[in-house]
Amino acid sequence: MNSHSLDYQQKTLLQRLNWQDWLYALIIIAGSVFAYIQYAQYMDIYEVGFLFGAAALFSYLGWQWKRLAKLVLIVGVVSLFSITLYHGDQARATQVFLLKYLVSSQSAVMWMNVLFVLAMVTYWFALFKRSVFVGKVATALTWSAVLFGFVGLMVRWYESYLIAPDVGHIPVSNLYEVFILFCLITALLYLHYEQKLNTKQLGGFVLLVINAAVGFILWYTFDRQAHNIQPLVPALQSYWMKIHVPANFVGYGAFSLAAMVASAYLLASKGFLASRLPSLEVMDDLMYKSIAVGFAFFTIATILGAMWAAEAWGGYWSWDPKETWALIVWLNYAAWLHLRMVKGLRGAVLAWWALVGLMVTTFAFLGVNMFLSGLHSYGTL
Amino acid sequence: MRFAVSLLSVLGVASIIGTVLKQNESYENYIIKFGQFWFGLFEHLGLYDVYHSGWFLVILLFLVVSTSFCIYRNGPHMIKEWRTFKEHATEKSLNAFGHQATYQLNSGAENAKQQLIQFLQAKGFKYKLKRQADGSELIAAKAGTHQRWGYIFTHVAMVIILLGGLLDGNLPFKVQEILGHKRIETLDIPESQVPDISRLDTNNPSFRGNMTLPEGSSGNVAFVRVRDGYLVQELPFRVALKDFRIEHYATGQPKSFESDLVIIDPDLKQPITKTISVNHPWTYKGIAIYQSDFQDGGTKLDFKVWDLFSPNTQTKPLAGAIFQIGILGNGGDTLKVEYNDFRKFNIINMSQDGKGKPHNVGPNITYKLRDNKGQAIEYVTYMQPMQIDGRHYFISGMRETVSEDFRYLRIPVDGDFGIDGFMNFRAVMLDASKYPEIARRIAAISLEGKKEPALKKQFETSVVQLLTVFAQGGYSQIAQVIEKSVPEKEREGAAGTYIKMLRVAAYEAYNMSLAANNKPLLPSGDDSEALLRDSLNSFSDMFFYGSPYYLQLEQFEHKEASGLQLTKSPGQKWVYLGSVLLVLGIFSMMYIRERRIWLLLKPASNQVLFAMASNRKNLDFEQEFNLYREQLKSLLA
Ligand code: HEM
What we know:
The structure holds 2 protein chains of 2 kinds. By secondary structure, chain A is mainly α.
């Protein structure tokens, strides 16, 4: 054996972990054990499963992606800090300075909105100036927006229990809440690929779609007062909601990311910004990866939805408009993947298709709620 | 392959139709919406129930067949690829690879071979050795070929899911219908009279039916809706509803719907009791019972009936129950009362801009009054007064057809928050014998000091006239009179005078009605002004109420009915199995990457040829190849 032999040895995940990783996992597990001891009487067996499943998942994800681990910890600390300021009284959200202007759920969400807008402007600025430093600032702004968004959701979760114990529920139950989730998931997916493929130049594009959602959140807040926490209708009181909705939004987020990369791809392939954007191959690859992730999660989400429907509506498939449109979205990306994998198709056609896919997805997400009625009626505008 | 993509697209487009056109509505609605011609055409195409139409099922079957065929064609190839090491590759073919490199060996070939094998193992590759005819040796290695199972899993999964779904569709019924063995029932007749040809027996493998049980009743059949009719599905047991409950949040929104059910089955020693609720069904003998909705189960109602146009305050009692029919009036003018619905809670957003919080405004009752020509007017009446713009009113709406919005009569509450104040006032206003007294009182106040009897007489006459006209048809009657007898230029002035005079008259009339009932008279002030204005408006609107009867709901005995859904779906476990396979398949297809490496050791030239390939060309592969090329270089150097 000579010294070279070690150069190519790949360590397994467990071998790569250092003491900080273990500490991180320990904190996560301790947190969930604490939550379990504290709230066991409110949870059914599935929810206990989800709690520890989530702990395992976040440990794993944090090991794979160190920045996510940091995010999880900071979100935890800030949320706990915010919660202690409430003293169990919801009215304090508008009375205590730090809550009112920083970390009540409402203000945290507003900070998220502001930071996303700033991040987008900064990304575009970095793109035109070809500035590495400004790009780093944009990335940092995006991370902060994500931080505030998650704090907003966590605190909102807590606030819902302050209204009344029976009103409390996880904040993924109406359009306002899932729009926040959409922004966060899309941003995280993007940040992940940005780090992996070094594609800061695409930030401005991806943040366009996120800021469209931010615009919606603002309109929904100020025009429709949608930020008020509403109790759950009986059909939504199910542990299924806790996994079905997030899985769906990983799908939506990934498809949106793919479409924004596709738009950059199309511009570059026509010669616009070509010298500033990543190479076509990288963008093509990113588009594929994100549609693949989206497709996998969307499949899971649809299956979970079917299982939920089987329990709530008496049939796993009712051809309700939302279900049907989920199927259409799924078929659309199945066709996309077929073309790419089987025919080996690449390039502009698939990029256009990904853009059309975003329209189909948007319709399934929003259009169905606006124009069609059905069993999924909780999300009407 | 192009075929698969087209099939997926066709299915997608076909699915859209059913979301654009609202499915399974009543056929009457479709006729109203589309007109006879289009209605007929659409019906022919099965557009009202697309997902159960023949042609849609054909698309699904086609998908099953073509996907099966695809598996049949590609499956063996995939398995072969999964197993093979491709150790028969020749030097010539390896040289043609896009991804390859050649290294000069320093040490002996045997040593290099050991190093390379260790390298491959460290990277998670499996390998096979093959000695070539020219004395060189080939190490053929592979990793991630399990990916090939992804194809088989996903596509077998699709076939299983589609077949499972078809099993739970209405295919057996469709076949029997085509053969003439079964027919849907379209008439609204009692269940016991539904003929055998429209009944499905307990052996039917799969169904999805509904059952409405009022509290305290039981049933042993479910109704399966098909197009514009239904089938009766017999059950192997009897279900009884002991109690149905709705719980509410503090805000009034519903929190839970629960039914206490009892199953009575000859196979059981004693009945089983179980509570179901939304998201918590119960399965017995393979039949799942769900809480799906609720409706009224025949609430008993007690009314006080006011005859709006009679100049007295007598009322008649009326008792009825939801789904029953009562009689109002006598002689040739009787009206049938069809009690349609009672709702105990009504959560309404009463704020004008819709931004306020919705809240509960209490019970309401919906009924139709049908005359002996068969014409009906629908009414909805709220039991308790509602607050609108700071004042309280009893609200009752009417409409002639379902396509119209309700038009509402708003009756202001009296000092005791009751309706009697208005009703007593109305009686005085309709009673011509009271007009001279009203006129006298007004004259006494407004003609103070002027003693000419002729003037007074004339004034009083005009008040009486005004009241008479108003009692014949409210403001619109007055408007008609003005239009007939006053020149156009003076009309506005005349109307103003009349309205003022009516206000004064209403004040006197209201006080007379209060005095007759030993109540304190109206205080002066804005509140009384508003009350009089509202009372006059309400009096005037009475003439558009469509019937002389106002049904004041006094008491009710609430009885609810629970809407259950009963399903038997043998395909469900297949669909779930298929789903698991699908997820496994998709993940293996996308996250396992098949890669192959060939290392050809050529002792003659003391060289190693390195070639690498993957069935998916992408960036990850490029990076991996570049990495390995460098690592091998330093390994062999
Ligand atoms: C029910 C209809 C079908 C559905 C839903 C379906 C779905 C899929 C999915 C999800 C993938 C995997 C894409 C990925 O890994 O991301 C795939 C791949 C593939 N499909 Fe289909 N498919 C269908 C019909 C067909 C048919 C009829 C054929 C044959 C012509 C076919 C041939 C293939 C092939 C060859 C692959 C790629 C396998 C590989 O390269 O590993 N599919 N399909």
